[in-house]
Amino acid sequence: MFGCVRAAPFNGRVPYDMFGWLASQYRPRPQLSVRSAVDPEGQAPGRRVTNFELLPMTVRFKHLRQVAKNSVGVYRSHIHGRGLFCKRDIECGEMVVEYAGQVIRSVLCDKREKEYEAKGMGCYMFRIDEQTVVDATVHGNAARFINHSCEPNCYSRIVDIFGKKHIIIFALRRILRGEELTYDYKFPLEDVKIRCTCGSRKCRKYLN
């Protein structure tokens, strides 16, 4: 035990993380909603059809733009350092957040991954189709911090809004304030495994 940090042996610098402050223990997460037992209709929170699922995608997307910033926030997570959490109750089928960023061609992915790796930066990318990818590493929003879970409460979907493709995260069930948002990354099977730390009852142990 050392009384002064400078008196301790130097073990090298901690890799720079420009988003490290988001996982600070001094940023308290939203408190879990007291409505955790039953919903307003007296049913246990789970999968049920809501009015959101009956509305046109354009109307739902407009609503998303109005409420997204006040609906979610990035806080410390046990899954992967930091994650995205609900700041209000979210209904089943509701658009939660758009996975936003810079749309690039697929051929640029490998080049950018190497550039980010050389700078010691994390890489946040989401494929739209065979030709295009959303790079959220620098120009993205909070959606890039959504963690994987083998038992998720959200799912991703590509939707066409006025001729433009968007990656939208939807609520798979009713999600209560204070819950961490997760979806299944659905990585392809590979020999080199990436360990899963979601901690769910149905955890597959590996992301791929």
TrEMBL record:
SMART domains, sorted: PostSET, SET
Origin, by domain of life? Eukaryota
Entry GO MF terms: DNA binding; histone H3K4 methyltransferase activity
Q: Which InterPro entries match?
A: KMT2A_2B_SET, Post-SET_dom, SET_dom, SET_dom_sf
Q: Which is a GO BP term held by this UniProt record?
A: methylation
Which Pfam families does the entry mention? Answer: SET
- Where does the record place the SET domain? 70-186
Post-SET domain: which residues? 192-208
Spell out the SUPFAM superfamilies in the cross-references. SET domain
Q: Which UniProt keywords apply?
A: Bromodomain, DNA-binding, Methyltransferase, S-adenosyl-L-methionine, Transcription, Transcription regulation, Transferase
Supply the name of the protein.
Histone-lysine N-methyltransferase
- Organism taxonomic ancestry: Eukaryota, Metazoa, Ecdysozoa, Arthropoda, Crustacea
